[in-house]
Amino acid sequence: MSKEKLIRKFDKQSKVYEIRRKQQSERKWRSALLRSAKGKVLEVAVGAGANFSFYPKDVEVIAVDFSSEMLSKAKASAAESGIRATFLQTDIEALSFPENSFDTIVSTLSFCGYDNPVQVLKSLSFLCKPGGQILLMEHGLSSNRWIGGTQKMMEPMFKRLVGCHLDRDIMDILQQSNVHVHRMERYIFNTIHLVWASPK
Ligand SMILES: C[S@@+](CC[C@H](N)C(=O)[O-])C[C@H]1O[C@@H](n2cnc3c(N)ncnc32)[C@H](O)[C@@H]1O
């Protein structure tokens, strides 16, 4: 699917993401992960801004997404939560910040969307300061045979309808990237991964 088509798909879904943001879906996981955020934060694929209400109030967030509709909802969310944030509409697979720019990098539910998630994670690690942290909440392929098999079966339809991959192997992505994982929690038959990592 072309990037233009993908952006249109996410633009159209932005209202649903805003509703989910207001319902505070995934509250328990987002709150556990994001309370660790510090300093200058890069949040990639910010969507409708579901994370803003969970950040400590003293962070400064640079939020990126390629969907203008998602970004306008994310701006409202940051304002509601009183988080200092700036917004950038660009492709995360072509980010161009200098090395060691951020204290914290956040990605929630974004690795399903990229053509090359390993390359994205490597680039996020490059942008993170030494001693900084990379916080991830990603969904992916279950370690359970039956659930994993169903995810693989549904993958082409899901990609076409929603625009993201259902069967990303998050453990493999982490292993292939230049990050050191300090802590990981997995939920729902290991389909949801919370990760506290840093650049290697
Ligand atoms: C599944 S949503 C997740 C949104 C949010 N992070 C959350 O936790 O609810 C994926 C988001 O990634 C954005 N996205 C996907 N691929 C992207 C890319 N290559 N560059 C920029 N944004 C991208 C979409 O526009 C969408 O807002």
TrEMBL record:
Transmembrane segments annotated in the record for this chain: none
Superkingdom per UniProt: Bacteria
InterPro entries registered for this protein in UniProt: Methyltransf_25, SAM-dependent_MTases_sf, Thiol_S-MT
Keywords carried by this UniProt record: Methyltransferase, Transferase
Entry GO MF terms: methyltransferase activity
Domain Methyltransferase: 41-132
GO biological process, one term: methylation
CDD domains recorded: AdoMet_MTases (cd02440)
Protein name, per record: Methyltransferase domain-containing protein
Organism: Paenibacillus foliorum
